[in-house]
Amino acid sequence: MQKILLGKQVKELDALFVSESGISSYQLMERAANKFCQWFIAHFKKGCKINICCGTGNNGGDGLAIARLLSEQGYVINVAIIGNPEKGSIDFINNLKELPRSIATSNWRELKSAEITIDAIFGVGINRALEGEYLDLVQKLNKEQGVKISVDMPSGLPSDTPADGEVFHADHTVSFQFPKLSLLFPEHAKYVGELVIKKIGMEPKHFDSFSSSYRFFSGESLSSYHKKFHSFSHKGDFGRIVLIGGSYGKMGSICLSIKASLRTGAGLVFCKVPGCGVNIVQSSIPEAMVLPPSLERDIDTNLEFSGIDAIGIGPGLGTGENAQKLVRKVLKSFAGPTVVDADAINILGEKRDWINLLHSNVILTPHLKEFERLTGVKSDNHLQRIELAKEFCMKHNCSLVLKGAFSVLSFPDGSQVFNNSGTVYMATGGSGDVLTGMLTSFLGQGYTMKQAAICGVFHHGHAGELAGKALRRGTMASDIVENIPKSFLDWDIK
To answer: Quick one: a GO biological-process term for this protein (predicted)?
Structure first.
């Protein structure tokens, strides 16, 4: 799992890596430029005109190295430098000396439109809003119609904090080794575009001396987070779980959770639904068992916890009186692993004193609006949300998945993991209900809270990627469910 460092730590990391690996900073820059070019060549054909706009720092040095390497591959390159080259960084100056004369150069003010613009003006070092000629250039580039690509960071975007002022609007951002924190903020999507991470040879040991509570998970050693089962394992070993939810007109939510839990490997799945939902569940999911309800339209509050390994509560539940009583009963009387989602979260937002019933075996899975209701804080600042999620979990000794692109997993020890799986095509009703079923299933199988969260969220995202690749905007939540087994196969999970 990749540690995410702050922008001010990147120079120290580079210096440490150069020292320990025996290469020069120039060679490290060459390595990064090669990684960028490999990605670029795989996505863009030769023959189109390319403008590369370079500052005079190390990000500009990356840009010059990229210009040279792409030119060697037959691409038509024009370089525009902003700032005083004589006062540039050492590696910028060295790359400027290596720039072939065959590469055209122009004053940025006279820059003509190109099919592709590569932004290598500012990297991780910027800590204030763009001004002067730099602001003028970025505003000019943002009016261009061609494809726009940023090297490491979109110019004008700070590494770790929200944007303040004009920022280059990239269609693709190719960042090196790990994503800088602000690249993961949803409010920065219009600047970052597609985020691509390219490893440049650094190993976990090079990050050991740097403190950070943030991690980025792309499936590395995924199997090590999974529990192993032996040949004599039976359905009881794979967990007895209860999924609670559904209401008149909203039975689809809990059905998706039930199906997802079974596809994730739950041994025995019981569900607590209102009487109006019994035939729906029994006919559409014969593998599930319905706990006999006593009410037709409303969910009743009768629930025994004996022999239950995990509970998931919330999908389609509603926020009526009985639903509220059930949420309180589960949190107060069941000490085992519990997933709290959807209406169960909304109930906690209304009954704020019940938040004190949360415990170390609870994981909450809010989307952004549910998170606002849970915490009582409205914000468009994702850094504030991330910090609030961390504080919430440490205070209430629980875990939380803040859902969205790069979902943030927060744990009671203060650690946070950004998940790197998923697709925009998962933005459809019911996707969160699928995750609830998957998490409850893993917890019922005996996974720790952290194992279940990491595996559940990652496989949920990967199953969504598989569905989205085939169906694009036609993807439904049930398509995610059907691709859960394929996600296991892709990652060789037995």
So the answer is: metabolite repair
- Ramachandran area for residue 3 (φ above 0: left; ψ -120 to 50: alpha; else beta): beta
pLDDT tens per residue, range 318-358:
999 999 999 999 999 999 999 999 999 999 999 999 999 99
What phi and psi values does residue 219 have, to the nearest 5 degrees? 95, 5
* Domain boundaries defined on the chain: 2-212, 222-490
Estimate the crossing angle of helix 58-72 against helix 90-98, to 10 degrees: 20
Was 403 annotated as part of a binding site?
yes
Strand partners, 294: none
Closest residue by Cα to residue 126 from 153, 103, 158: 158
DSSP string computed for 216-244:
EESSTTGGGGSPP--TT--TTTT-EEEEE
Residue 480 burial (CB count, 10 A): 35
pTM for the complete prediction? 0.96
Residue type, 2: Q
Annotated binding-site residue? 437: no
Q: Is 41 annotated to bind ligand?
A: no
Assigned fold of 222-490: UDP-N-acetylmuramoyl-L-alanine:D-glutamate ligase (3.40.1190)
Residue 142 among known ligand-binding residues: no
Phi-psi region of 6 (alpha: psi -120 to 50; beta: other; left: phi over 0): beta
Task: Please tell me whether 128 is known to bind a ligand.
Answer: yes
